[in-house]
Known about the structure:
Elements: H1 3-22, H2 30-39, E1 51-54, E2 68-73, E3 84-92, E4 95-98, E5 116-120, E6 133-142, E7 156-160, E8 185-190, E9 205-211, H3 214-217, E10 228-232, E11 240-244, E12 249-252, E13 255-262, E14 273-277, H4 282-287, H5 290-309
Antiparallel strand pairs: 1-11, 2-3, 2-5, 3-4, 4-7, 5-6, 6-7, 8-9, 8-12, 9-10, 10-14, 12-13, 13-14
Amino acid sequence: MRPSKFVTCFLLYFLYTAPHLVQGIDPLSHELIQWREIRSSNGTKPSDFHYLVTGGYRPPVNDLVKYAVSIRFGDAKRFFGTNHMCGGSIISKRAILTAGHCMYSKRGMMIQARKLRVFAGTPRRLEEASTTQELRVKKVLPHPKYRPGKYRHDLGVLQLRDEVSPTEAAAIIPLADKATTPGQLCTVVGWGTVVQFGPSPDEAINGDLEVLPNSECTKLANFNPKGMICARNRDDSEVDSCQGDSGGPLISENKLIGVVSFGEGCGEKYSAGVYTDVYYYHDWIVENSAHLRLVSQVSLVLALLQPAWW
């Protein structure tokens, strides 16, 4: 091998392989290759959709991460959590609310339910805890008007085969019961990258934001006031959702008001993150998760009655 070729290969190794090794990812694994396809799905630029909370913080006790889940593709055979692809919110024992674009591959094909796993009660992405619950997905249900590569109606429900067991580490979050108002304080939670295209954290991060008026949001590309809200931190523009936060919760007063959808970069000055408006889609969300609540209640009643049958 000529020296010039050796130097080229050496540089390529550190540019593409070494960074992944630092994060504990096997760059040659089948799961990572598939995940890369999903991560750049819908034909968008890497900066279009977000995965983590840029410029965020870790509170001494995180009372909000119990509502969030890590949605993962395939199996992480070597390192727990390296197949994280999106966030989500627990809205019933058998339903997870997430972004529509988290449900499609690079080619615009819906991801098969059997290839997804939901992890609840696990505040650390790379470390399985005693409270961690691994849940199988029964059905992938994007909003019927969502189209891959588009920005409207960016939400969907993952119907679970297994029930989430409510604990201090995994809890059902109530849906917003009224429209958001400008200036409303909120927090985004996720495992997204700490800077654009940077490393993803192990422990979940929070970012405090405020809902902006539509007069400001409509200045953002692809924003539509029907079904979208936007939010930013007026004191620190670097606080934002980012790669890996997609589908995760935007929370206000312990209620789910938004789903991380898209944005231009991460923490860009004079910009803001765009979130699917949960209240706008309230009826559709309830319709596609309420019967799952009923199934859970019936199962509980049958379990209580079972001793009487013997």
